[in-house]
Amino acid sequence: MENKFYSFEKTSDTTADVFIYGDITSYEWDETDVSAWGFKKELEELGELSQLNVHINSYGGETFQGLAIYNLLKQHKAEVIVYIDGIAASSASIIAMAGDKVCMPKTALMMIHNCWTLAIGNSKELRKTAEDMDKIAIAYKEAYLSKVNIDEEKLDKLLEDESYLTADECIEMGFADKIVDLKPNSSINQNASMCLYKLVNKLKESEKDKIVQVVLPEDSIKNIIETSMKETCKEFLNGTSKGKPTGLYNEEKKDSLVGSFLNSFLKNEGGF
Fold first, then answer.
1. pTM to 2 decimal places
2. I need a labelling partner for 6 at 20 to 30 A (CA). Which of 17, 40, 145, 268 fits?
3. For the chain, which domains are there?
């Protein structure tokens, strides 16, 4: 099937992203549908992984299919990190409980409720259906109870009330582990850290060009970076000519050098 609303994508040799953006069903009649069989097949094709990022935006669907996907994820050797991108409702919330970590932005929701069905028959058959549903509830409640920090009585009340839970409520009760902050941090410290990060990477790349096919220990790379920075600063201050200095200590060129440096710095958002 092409253009599925769920997808598997390897982001490196040992990590992959999975997007569950459709209904949880037994048969994939529509491009939005997700079945346990299809999920298992594509998960196996990813091979060995150390981390699996599962993104969920689903209203849920069939309980048994949700439980099967939950168990597939729980049995997987990789660390499973779940991200609630929009909503994890009904059986999709069961799948979310498979995460070693569950992350939610404050703009996401989780919805949990008791399973329901349609039934016809005489009174005996209807009573049997109700009893069966009580047993099914035992299974999916185990998924929640393995994650949350509330007792079963509190969980039962939430399920009976068909509860929509905010990210903060999920954190408080243990349905989720972390609030994801989607707002970029524009603080001075963050900008300064980014500038230093870019500088170090730039210097590393520069030294890689000079030392082709040679793998250096981390301490050696640090020494190269420190030496390069010291030489650059020394040249900027003192100049490089054997005669009259051409750096900042040359009063004739001091102003123009400073102006040029600042212009370049501002133009390039920090000079990197």
1. 0.63
2. 145
3. 6-180 (3.90.226.10), 188-267 (no CATH)
